[in-house]
Amino acid sequence: MDHGSRGDREENDIEVEGGGHNGSFESERRKFVERMGSGTSEDHNLREPLLLKCRTNTTSQIAIVGANICPIESLDYEIVENELFKQDWRARRKVEIFQYVVFKWTLALLIGVLTGLAAVFCNFFVENIAGFKLLLINNLMLNDRHFMGFVANTSINLGLAILAAILCAYIAPAAAGSGIPEVKAYLNGIDAHSILAPSTLFVKIFGSIFGVAAGFVVGKEGPMVHTGACIANLLGQGGSKKYHLTWRWLRYFKNDRDRRDLITCGAAAGVAGAFRAPVGGVLFALEEAASWWRSALLWRTFFTTAVVAVVLRGFIEFCRSGRCGLFGQGGLIMFDVNSAKNSYSSADLLAVIILGVIGGIFGSFYNYLVDKVLRTYSIINERGPIFKVLLVAAVSLLTSCCSYGLPWLSHCIPCPSYLEADRCPTVGRSGNYKNFQCPAGHYNDLASLFLNTNDDAIRNLFSSGTSKEFHLSTLLVFFVAIYCLGIITYGIAVPSGLFIPVILAGASYGRLVGNLLGALSDLDTGLFALLGAASFLGGTMRMTVSLCVILLELTNNLLMLPLVMLVLLISKTVADSFNQGVYDQIVKLKGLPYLEAHAEPYMKNLVASDVVSGPLITFSGVEKVGNIMHALRLTRHNGFPVIDEPPLTPAPELCGLVLRSHLLVLLKGKKFTKQKTMTGSDIMRRFKAHDFAKAGSGKGVKLEDLDIKEEEMEMFVDLHPITNTSPYTVVETMSLAKAAVLFRQLALRHLCVVPKTPGRPPIVGILTRHDFMPEHVLGLYPHIVNRHK
């Protein structure tokens, strides 16, 4: 795969063109040394201290994003303090700084408004498309046209599923899946092609509508997180020359740091829009999505989610009168269990503990099976888009057969005597009591769960005061079906969230436990369903605080706080003893080089110099153009150390680090000299800091864009103005564990390793995120884990 423009070959190994690491490596190395400017062989040894060591990093530079394999690269969250940046910062007036702050809050406002509108849009179409489909099936069943009901259900579901699959397979493969692992990886510092592109946003919205309306056991909540992140990324592009959005203050946002903050706000807004849980959205971003946090970001995410809540509330009030079709009657899920009795005894606490243990076991097994299914689907998806569509069609047919066929196994139940005739059976609207094939005055409890939108099915399971509504066999069949369908559906080429399938399955066995306990418990069966959902969520996703608050905001019942906290803690503890959380597991499965907050124990036995890769390529402060061009062609490094040498300095010393993207901009400007002299003042007049700002998606200068003539190859260029003179450095004897924590907490892309003793080359090597990956470390020292044990 060609990584020439987007690959992130940061681990400092030379890949010769056309062959990688092969037998011609030594000859290529010698040619490269000869072309690295004038000087003695001793000078070259000083500038390339790792050539003889030749330790290379072979970790993968590709990953799966959505359902697509593409190259990945790291993001530049570090502030590049070069002379141009310092000049720009000193020149900023107070009014410009004020504009920057105001515009940041304005963007947070826009993210909240647009994400709220996207949530309303998705719910509006899901409720209406699925609602009209279910009304059609209900009318056919009332007329005893059972086979036509099956044909209508299957064909509509299949058509919607194929539409979603075509969008994902052919337009934006990155939109498949929930998107939460990709957003989590981006906020950790990993970028990939189309991960937050406008096409991904388009497919995420419409693919989610078609997928959920098609009856798949998926939710739109996970995709809403990805949608919010895409909206934030689109707003945070820092302007566009193409569309004449080039106001002066927009350029301040052309950096990865500000985009990271905005995308964090977008992820929080997505949760708020999906669950009507603004505080839960903030906590989700803090606990699960973001890798770096600060108090200023807390304020902005809270403001963004508050805006989302206001937008949603306004549209719900507008649609409540029936002006939005079926939306407003069941859309934008809110499960009110406030009417249930909330008192509980010590016996109930024992039942809650049991639920927590069950949720931990089921959740960890669910994650294990999802892992196996994703590995299997990846083999199918690699064969091409048509196979992705066929896989979606097959899962759609299976889901339709289950949702329409399984209710026939259930017996008809007489409507409760205390209910009015228009409430049972439910005809022409959503509700608990679906008639299906039953005679008048009876309902089918399994059809009430299967032939409903997922939101209404959860609402039915959470309903209080209805302990006799569902038979034990019904709850058991529904749990097994949803558990299995949720596993086989996640991983197909449609936008699919895990929250709703997990809540459905958890609520099923929670209500089942509540029915089994019967009179032994003081808690309502609807509250048991809520606790079951909490336990399964904790067992699969391993979040605690954010899930607790989301569930409380969903159910509008603060009195359940102690029990929800208890069941989440128990289920997470039990599940952690088996495997990782589902999102952590998927991040690893996709090959995304995610940096954990903690270092692995075996890293304490190594020091930083043990894992740096070579050979290391450096430049002089004033370098020959041909040497830079050759290095850019020969390697895929994104950072190069700059060494000042005599006569500029008494001895070789580390001047700083220069980025590949900055070198390309500088070379395109052709500010060259025939003599090896410092021309920083001329470059400072020719360029401004915003010329080196990060461009929007895929718009930066590429190596192929340069037109360097043969005579210009022998000229020189001064790198000092664009060199980051204060890169983060660690001494070579620092423990790898300590370096890993430092690298992650400072959100670095490059970490320079310098020698401890004088008289040696001024830099030992550069650490990147790939050098901290277990695949690299354990590949170099395979016995270190056993030795640590």
Notable traits:
789 residues, three-stranded mixed sheet, Clc chloride channel, elongated, CBS_dom_sf, three-stranded antiparallel sheet, 6% strand, repeat, Cl_channel_pln, mainly alpha, disordered N terminus, 13 strands, 4 domains
Describe, in short, the structure shown.
By secondary structure, the protein is mainly α.
Question: What would your notes on this structure say?
Answer:
It is a single chain. This protein folds into four domains: 99-321, Clc chloride channel (Orthogonal Bundle); 346-590, Clc chloride channel (Orthogonal Bundle), CATH 1.10.3080; 595-612 and 732-788, no CATH class; 622-724, no CATH class. With 789 residues, the protein is mainly alpha-helical. The two termini are 39 Å apart. The radius of gyration is 29 Å and the shape is elongated. The longest helix has 49 residues, at 94-142. The model is unreliable at 1-53 (pLDDT under 50). The strands form five sheets. It has a three-stranded antiparallel beta sheet, with helices on one face. The protein has 28 helices and 13 strands. One of its GO terms (cellular component) is plant-type vacuole membrane. It holds the Pfam family CBS. Residues 722-785 form the CBS domain. The chain crosses the membrane at residues 105-126, 147-172, 192-218, 262-285, 297-316, 349-369, 389-409, 470-492, 558-575. Belongs to the chloride channel (TC 2.A.49) family.
